[in-house]
Amino acid sequence: MHVFGVIASVAFRNFKALRNTSLRLSPFNLVIGANGSGKTSLIQALQQLRALAKLPLGDPAAVTRVGGSEITFVFDAPHLGVTARLGCVDDVVCDLLRVDPVNAAEWEEVKVELATMRSYVFDHAAMAVPASRDSGQRLAGDGSNLAAVLARWQRETPAAFDRLQAELTRWLPEFTGIVLPEDAGGVVRLGLKIGDAEGPVMADNLSQGVFYVLGILVLSFDPAPPAVVCIEEIDRGIHPRMLREVRDALYRLSYPAAMGETRAPVQVIATTHSPYLLDLFREHPEEIVITQKHGHEAHFERLADRADLAELLRDGSLGDMWFSGILGGVPEES
Amino acid sequence: MKIAFLSESPADEAVLRILVEGALKEKPTVASAGYRARGWPNVLQVLPAVIRHLHFNTDVDTLVVTGDSDDSPVHTTAHDAPQYYHPHCRMCQLRAVFRQTGKRFPAAHGRLRVRRVVGVAVPALEAWLLCGVEDSVNEAAWTEGQARGILPYTRAELKLRVYRTERPSLPHEIACAVREAERHRRDLRRLEYDFPGFAALLRDLREPIPEIS
Q: Which chain B residues are closer than 8 Å to A317 by Cβ?
C-alpha cells in the first residue's frame, strides 16, 4: 500500500547553500550529510512555510519578487498538484507566499495540516527543568515542557501514557515507571522509578540519553500527532544498540499500519550523523537523503537513485560506505 | 556446555537459541553478554575479536555464529574438500576466520579452543522460519534460481511473508521469529534437509569440544 506524506517535494533556489536543488519527500526521510550541508536548512524551510501558511493569502500578482531566494513546495495526495512558493528576503526571512492553483478551500485543508507541523532539537538540560502544569499541550521544540506533557497525558490520555511508559521500560529496563509529582504552584517535576529503590530518580539525576529517549517516545506515542515532524540528530545520546528502537519509533509515526496503529501517517524528516543508524535502512534506501556539498553550494540526492546501489550493498554496510566517502555526504578536505 | 552467540540481530539470536536448544535437547548455559554484529560484513569483521575474547577471557566453550548469504555464492559440498576455500562463500569465510584466529592460541580455561558452530541462512534467516510452511522456500530452490538468473523470491518477500509488514518493530519481529523457531524445535529434520546451511551448523554442534589431550 502506498503511503502518502503531506509534502511531495521541495525545490530550492538561492536559499543558503541550497542554490538550485530539489528533493522528493517520502513519508519517512533520513537526511545525512556533512555539517553545514543543508540538512537544517531543509527543516528551516518547512518552518518558514508553516509560519507563512498561517497568514491570509495575498493577491497572487503582488507576491512575485524578481530574484532572491525561492522555495517551492508541492503537496501530496489528497492535495496533489497544489504548490506553495515562498519568496525570501534573505537566508532567514521569507515574507512572500504564493499558492497555485488558488483554490481557497483546498489551501485551507493544507493549512490545517501545516499548522500542526513541529520541529525538534532536544535539549536535555531544558527537558530536565520542572514545567508548569498548563504548558503541556504540545511538546516544545527543545522538549522543555516534557514533564508537563507527560502529566497531561497521564490525566487526559492515560492509555497513551501507559503505552509510552511500557515502551520506556522496555527500552530502559532498569526503570520501572514514570513519576510526575506536582507542587502546590502547579509545577510538575519528572522522575523515573528504578527497581526496588525507595525513591524515584528525579530529572536532575537522569542521564542525557534518558531525556532523548523520552522525547522520541512522546513523539512516537502522541495520541494526536502533527502531520509533519522534523527531528534533528535523532541518534544523539542513545546507545547504538538502541537505534533499532529509535528507527521503529519513527516508523510508528510514518507507517502506523505496520505497527498496528489506525491513525493517519505522520511525515517524518530526521537528520543523523550516525553510520550505525544508517545501517538500519539497508532494506529501505529510498528513505535516505544525502546532502552533498561542493564549495558553497549543496544539493540533495536520494540514495535509491544511485545506479550502482545494488553493487554497493553487496560490498559492505551503508554506514561504512557513507564514512568511506563512496556515498558522498562527507566533509570536504582542504 | 557454555555457549555464546554472534548474530546480526536480537531476533536472529532468539531463533538460534531455540534451534540450538532443540538440537541439544537441553537448555545450555548461555554467555551473559549478547555479542552482536551489524549485518554482513560486520559479522566477519568482529568475529576474530569475539573468538579471541571468548578464548582468553571467558569459560565459553562453544561459539555459534550465523549470517545471511544474501546474494553471495551458496556453500556446496565441493567447498568442504580439504584445502578448498571459496573466497566469496560466507560459510568458507566464517570457517576460515575460526581457523586462522585460533591456530596459534595456547590452551586456556581448560579447553584447546572455542568450538566453532557456523551456519549460513540462504538467503536470509527468514527462509529458515518459512521452512515447512512454504514448500517452495528452500536452499535448493534459491541455488537453482541463482544458476538460472531468476531468483524464486527476494529477501524482502521472505521478510514480508514472515512478519506481514515491510517494517516490523523489533518486538514484533522477535515474536514472529520465535513462533516459527518454536515450530522447528522438536523436530529439526526438515530444516536440516531443506537448508544445508543449517545442517552444517548442526554438524558443528555435534562435534566434540576441543579438549586438552
A: 38-39, 41-42
User: Out of A258, A279, A282, whose CB is closest to B167?
Assistant: A258
Chain A positions touching B10 (Cβ under 8 A) are: 244
B211 domain residue, yes or no: no
- Structural domain for B193, as ranges: 2-206
- Rounded to two decimals, the ipTM of the complex is 0.88
Low-confidence ranges of chain A (pLDDT < 50): none
How far is A265 from A260, CA to CA, in rounded Å? 12
Residue B22: inside a domain, yes or no? Answer: yes
Q: Shortest CB distance from B170 goes to which of A248, A284, A317?
A: A248
Q: What is the mean pLDDT of chain B?
A: 95
Q: What is the DSSP string of A148-166?
A: HHHHHHHHH-HHHHHHHHH
Number of structural domains in chain B: 1
pLDDT digits over A194-204, tens only? 988 789 999 99
CA proximity to B29, closest of B71, B65, B73, B62: B62
Report strand pairing: A131-132 vs B2-7.
Answer: unpaired
pTM of the predicted structure, to 2 decimals: 0.92
> Which class for B167: exposed (0-12), middle (13-18), buried (19 or more C-beta within 10 A)?
buried
* The pLDDT value given to residue A92: 73
